[in-house]
Structures are given as C-alpha cells and as structure tokens.
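How a chain folds remains the central question behind the approach discussed here. This step matters because it turns folding into a mapping between discrete strings. The sequence in question and its structure tokens are set out directly beneath this paragraph.
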Amino acid sequence: MKLRSFSIRSGRTIDYFGINAVQNMERFVSNMKRIYIVASRSAAKTSGALNDVITILEKFKILYRIYDRVLPNPSKDIVNEVSADIWRFGADSIIAIGGGSVIDTAKISSVIAECGGTVEDYITDPGKFCGSIPVIAINLTHGTGSEVNRYAVVTIEQPRTKVGLASEYMYPAISIDDPRYLLSLPINQTIYTTLDAFYHAIEAACGRNSSPYIVAMAEEVVKVISEWLPRTVRDLRNLDCRFWLLYASMLAGIAIDNSRAHLIHAIENVLSGLNTSLPHGAGLAMLGPAAISYLYASEYEILHRILRHLDPSIQPDPSDSIKAGEAVRRFQQSVGFSERLSNYGFTVNDADRVVETVENVLSYALKQAPIEVSRETIRAIYLEAL
C-alpha cells in the first residue's frame, strides 16, 4: 500500500502524519517571534528532526532557544526548570522534539509557564489548569501517543513514583508524525516503544471507559504491530515498517485519550519511578503477560478479538486466560524481548513497597481497570516479572 500522508484531529490536536509532514509546521509558526525548543539529548539531532525545525525557524527569522537536558522519566525538578525558562524567554510557542519524556515535559511546562506555580500545584489541584502556550509535538518514537492526547507523566520524590496529569490544555496544537525520523531509532527502543503502544491498546480496549470505537482501534493497533514489528527488527531502516508502526502508535495514543491506561501502567509507573533507568515500554512488557491473564478472565470477548492476531487458537473463554498471557509473552520473545525486572535490580524484597505505592498513589488508575485489583494481584504480577 502506498505510504499516503494525511492529517487527523484528536481532541484539540491536529496530527500531520507522513513523509515530510514537518513542512506543515510552517503555516503555524510563520508569524511567531520567539519559540522554545525542548529536544531529546541525541535523537533530535540524529533523526534529522532538529535540523529540519531550525531550517524552518531561520526561514522565518524566528528567535529560538533549545533545552536538551530532559532525562527519561523526567523529574518534577526538570519540569519546573523548563517551565521557568520558557516564561523568562517569553515564548510564543514550544516545539517538543523527542519521545514521551520530552513531549510530556513540554506539555506540562506549557501550562505552568502560562498559569504559574510549580508542577506540584497541578498534581494536588487539577483546578489549577487555566491555559497553555501552544505546543508543537514532533514525535520520535512509535510508542508514546503523547503527541495526540491530553496526558503527561512526571516523576515525584515522595513517594518515589510517576504520576499522571490530564487536561484539555495539554493537547498539542499540532503534532508531527514523520516516519523518516524513526529510521535511526535503535533496536532496543524500537521494541520498547512499540510494546508501549501495544499495551496502550490493550488497556484502552478493556478499561471501564472502553467502547466499540476503542476496541476497533485497539484491534487495528495489535494487528499492525503483530505484522510489522517482526519485520522492523530485521530491517530497521525500512521506511514502510516505520510508517506502519508509527501509525499503530498514533492510533493507540488516541485510544487511551478516549479511554484510560490502568493496571499495567499503574504498576510500571511505580517501577520506573523507583528506577528511572528502566525504560517504560520494557517495564510494561515485563508485567504485561501476567497482567493480561488476569484481565482476560474478565474481558475475554474483547481481548480474544484483539489477541487472536497473535495466536488464532485462543478461544473467547475465561479458561484461556493463561494461554492469552503466554501468547503475548511468546510474541515479545519472538521480536527479541526477554528482559526481567531482576535485570534492573528489583528483588522479592521490593514487593511490599511496590504494592503499597501502587495502592496509595496510583489508585486513580486502578479504578479504570475492569477488575477489582487486590494487593495480592499486584504482588503476583510483580513477582511473575522478576
């Protein structure tokens, strides 16, 4: 199929998708004077995205400043630093060039720079959101979905975990999904980020806010990933592969925008908050097979429709819940993922801390799950991933 460019609206965001989609940015920035760029440390350059953006800004003689010190699983201190710098610079707009950590940082900072305060204020008082500086999100992974939704995640200290924020003001004004920028994504990040999109689709489809619309999108996401991720890990420079995985990621981002992530993300946000070197998608993939077995027992009709693309022999019956989880595990292994939480220093001794933090801080996410999540369920999923 021809790689056709298109645009799509998600909430307040217009997403421009396709080869050379970044050129659509020109009409948005042409009358601006000062733009603040939040960029990933290396991928913004190696992908070519930063150079393309600077070429456009210089064409219109726009003054810009670049911040490139965002770390994975960004802390509240980084978000507060960026938002203060944006305010001092007097930016007309913010351009985020990176994956989820960069885009989330830009989205939260756009609100704080407009409304004042610190990120802690918005965690404790959702009514604090009052507006935002327009954000242009240039996505460099096929996993985040942040370029098309109203969510952002930040790491806090007490207790050490990641928490999610949601606001209509955090939709990017426009976003760019250009598969050219994914050609330099290394194999580990290719796998991690694609599995992030996979679990966005799974959780959105079986969450309490799901609908036939969400389930249809989720099925498409998993169908595309099951076909194109194995091809991509064998040929990282294949533009067709990158196009379709980026398409799946974008759909999954819209799916969770209209539904919610829940069980798997809640546990993982604690884990990558405790150890920020744990890639988010990797954490999800470690927890996912066991968690899916629990979810399948309740939502077997929906999850059968989706997971049959991994294993056609799965039956729409709760007795196949273990088989469903194992089908996901086998697929992950087939594309080269077999990591365990123990590889990142987690042990049995961490179980109580993880369970307590999930229950006490991420309970808002657990409420979106289709099952009642007990302490024993959280513990079992965690221990299975060690």
Q: What stands out?
A: The longest helix spans residues 212-234. The beta strands are 6-10, 13-17, 34-39, 63-67, 93-98, 135-139, 151-156, 161-166, 174-177. The radius of gyration is 20 Å.
